[in-house]
Batch of 3 targets.
Target 1
Amino acid sequence: MSDQAATGEYLKCDAMGCDHFEMTPVTIEVVDKPCPKCGANLCTKEDFILFKTMSAASHSIHELILRDNPDTPLKLVATNVHNGTIKVADGPVAGKNPFPNDPADASQ
């Protein structure tokens, strides 16, 4: 299993009309990385900090649940952090963007 598959982390372009999506660990190196399709910023510093905060909180909650209830099935969820907002969807399916752009995302 690759590092990307192990983390389940990914970047997606939030620019309207751009469908760029890549499985990659979200590290400081991705801050201000331009989208290879449209050139938009894939991850701002603010979004990176919020993503890492949400990720740490999620991992802590999972550890607490499993510590007290080791047989509890956990559900993977995907989070999209953009411009200070957070969206949650069913967990990522290998290589599939859980947040495709659509007309409802016109604010992004």
Target 2
Amino acid sequence: MDRQAICQRFALKVAIAQTRLETLKAKAEAAKAIGELRLIVDLAAKAYAIHRTLRELKKSGEAAYQQARVDVESRIAHLEQLVRTIEAKFKAA
């Protein structure tokens, strides 16, 4: 898979996570779940940071690209896991 396709796939995953976080934020505000709301805002900031890193990834040299790609992949996986955890809390409530 070429660099542009990988970056597009990562950007799509981040965009999906951001959309899910916006939905969760609305639910947290409605439920007045302050703890979850703080976590959601923190995760939204992390998603934005990943998105910023993706822009840098597109411009990086090959050696830096390989290292940054691994870092971005793991950060996206962690973000997705945390979003699923918060979603599960709201489903259980």
Target 3
Amino acid sequence: MMASAFESPSSSDARFLSSRADENMMYETRITRVAVHLEQCPCVCVVPIRRFEDVVASQNRVNAIRADFRGELEGLICEELTRLPLLGRSIAHVVYASMRTEQARRAS
């Protein structure tokens, strides 16, 4: 899976389900994970999601955490690129070097 090629913040417990997973499996997996998390971290409060705006706000919080993490890494790392099926080990180092060159050019 492409998404699993990327590093996640240590605060994130990313799980990747098959693209064939149905909504019941996704729901059951999510409910179980939330229950375990709340048991392990009793000081955490559940934020109810009742409207679409709540979904957007939740996603924005997650995006901010991931953006902070990605910023600490200064973008993609070579190890992530080698795990991408589109690149693999054969050209990942070339793509990584090109990305760093472009980042340096934009920064100057």
